[in-house]
Amino acid sequence: GDSVTQMEGPVTLSEEAFLTINCTYTATGYPSLFWYVQYPGEGLQLLLKATKADDKGSNKGFEATYRKETTSFHLEKGSVQVSDSAVYFCALSDNTGTASKLTFGTGTRLQVTL
Amino acid sequence: EPEVTQTPSHQVTQMGQEVILRCVPISNHLYFYWYRQILGQKVEFLVSFYNNEISEKSEIFDDQFSVERPDGSNFTLKIRSTKLEDSAMYFCASSMDRGDGNTIYFGEGSWLTVV
Questions:
Q1: In this model, does residue B78 exceed pLDDT 70?
Q2: A5-24 pLDDT, tens per residue?
Q3: Which three-class secondary structure state does DSSP give residue B86?
Q4: A99, B42: Cβ pair inside 8 Å?
Q5: In 3D, which of A26, A64, A29 has the Cα closest to residue A47?
């Protein structure tokens, strides 16, 4: 079945550092790929998405490129802020059933310090 | 911005009791979902619902679970006889359609503790 593998956390960075959170996937067909973020005490929010190979999703300074050849969707940000501290989830949607169904990674906790 | 709302935010229940978690999806959405996240584990798909019927369910969604859309706005998850291992955060979600790249919007979750 489909699966998503994320790098283990927590990731601790100083403000303005470069962020990479690795995500690889296994899926049949051509899934859509997503990054969701969960800030403390809040629900899951869509951060960015990409629907086909070589698409780049971007939002709030974060970006990720759908790489079919390496089955990856790594999340990057050039300069993190304290307010980026949250748990980040990589997910894929198989788009094959009647309704979209997301398969999530385990989540990576990011802690940004001053 | 429209959002998915869930109640209660936190519920403590005794093992064997019935629990109903409630959700108000985004008003013009057509697809509805429940996911759960056991503490420290992955967010897992439970069930999807479209056109007043279940469209897909996972192995987790056994006979103890049921979903209902009793009126035009609410979407509920019922656990008939709770077990300790049902303790988790339950997320309701909704989407406009299921096309490629369809975005699923999540609520803030209902934290269920079974004691």
A1: yes
A2: 998 889 999 999 999 999 99
A3: helix
A4: no
A5: A64
